[in-house]
Predict the structure.
Amino acid sequence: MNGTHKRGPATVVELTEQLRQFAEDRDWQRFHTPKNLAMALAGEVGELLAEMQWLTPDEAACLMADEELGGRVKAEIGDVMIYLTRLADVLGIDLLAAADDKLAEVALRYPADRVRGSAAKMPRS
Amino acid sequence: MNGTHKRGPATVVELTEQLRQFAEDRDWQRFHTPKNLAMALAGEVGELLAEMQWLTPDEAACLMADEELGGRVKAEIGDVMIYLTRLADVLGIDLLAAADDKLAEVALRYPADRVRGSAAKMPRS
Amino acid sequence: MNGTHKRGPATVVELTEQLRQFAEDRDWQRFHTPKNLAMALAGEVGELLAEMQWLTPDEAACLMADEELGGRVKAEIGDVMIYLTRLADVLGIDLLAAADDKLAEVALRYPADRVRGSAAKMPRS
Amino acid sequence: MNGTHKRGPATVVELTEQLRQFAEDRDWQRFHTPKNLAMALAGEVGELLAEMQWLTPDEAACLMADEELGGRVKAEIGDVMIYLTRLADVLGIDLLAAADDKLAEVALRYPADRVRGSAAKMPRS
């Protein structure tokens, strides 16, 4: 794979494998330590926030209608997903299982009929 | 869905749908604006970093061998994935397509034979 | 200094010295590497965001009127300042000079009469 | 103040006043809401992390010896300080007092003679 990229991860597993291959092809595995990847993840999330920081809530709600801004936000979301997937792979964590386990836990802690419509009762960490 | 959670998103699409349902059941959609979700995403990434911040590189490399620490890190990774998936859904962005597009672009910008083994030539944004 | 803390840094220089002493008293200097402190800084900023994430703009504007929430936000701001000051010290950077240099640069790049009132012309990085 | 910037905040109070004037001159106060400034702060911290993410611990320890890299890191530290100072001002929080209060609290919670030299006993949030 010399600069070419066969398109199309349809699943997280495929994306994970493509990213692993991408790092191997460049001999970048040694830089992809958990701490370094976590920092890279935070860096990309920072860029995502920077794209939205001065928007009013109304502007943010329809930001995808702005082709240029929407394209930048989509690219940042892609970057965040890339580093998150790579970090999970390096740690041996199944990304979807981790999300699913957490969702199950949160569903128990925040039963719909007790928290409905209340921001004060939303998770804050 | 009253506090129960049928297990098992096997795909990003299924996780997306479960999270949408979760928000609807609690009437939380109005709080799930792009800016709020981006802040929540950054908050969870911050917690993930906090779990690793004082570890030496060696400790971080095998952090999953520590059951308690590993469990906390997995839970934080799950939280990050949850907010990232929810944010992409609210914006109408296909998470895997966004990552794939970005990977294709990065592969072109960083051809393996020109950047191999060099941290100086890794993406820094 | 065994768990006691003489009150009152009136200046950044004094805060810097107190934090240096604090780390020395606990033999924590070796953990206070630039990367670790940067991660700790990001972790605290994440907690700060988490305190505000579900607030409406109106609620956020007067959050200090809520004693409990205001107290938590002030504490997080304090944490962020602590790690920022400590990181600058470890790197040998003068925090106020760094801010001043940057402000001078931004003032040149964003002349008041050309950018007045325009969010589109605000810094986005 | 039309693009000019009289040099030299020697104190946090002076920096605070210069930033307030800077925003007023550009009619940017309305964008400087607590949530927007918190997002901008997180964005700048993300850029700071991005500068360090691929460095080895040894490289990071002497990063200021590299003029170009050191200059970029100093500029990012300046940006972080600018948004932190501005956010504290908008919220009516005394930045140094907030740090001092927090340090006093942490000193009580982490007495030197009980936590000396132990990363496991360092604050993790």
User: Anything to note?
Assistant: The domain at 12-113 of chain D is CATH 1.10.287.1080 (Helix Hairpins). Chain D touches chain B through 15 residues (CB under 8 Å). The CA atoms of residues 69 and 76 of chain D lie 11 Å apart. Chain D has one domain: 12-113.
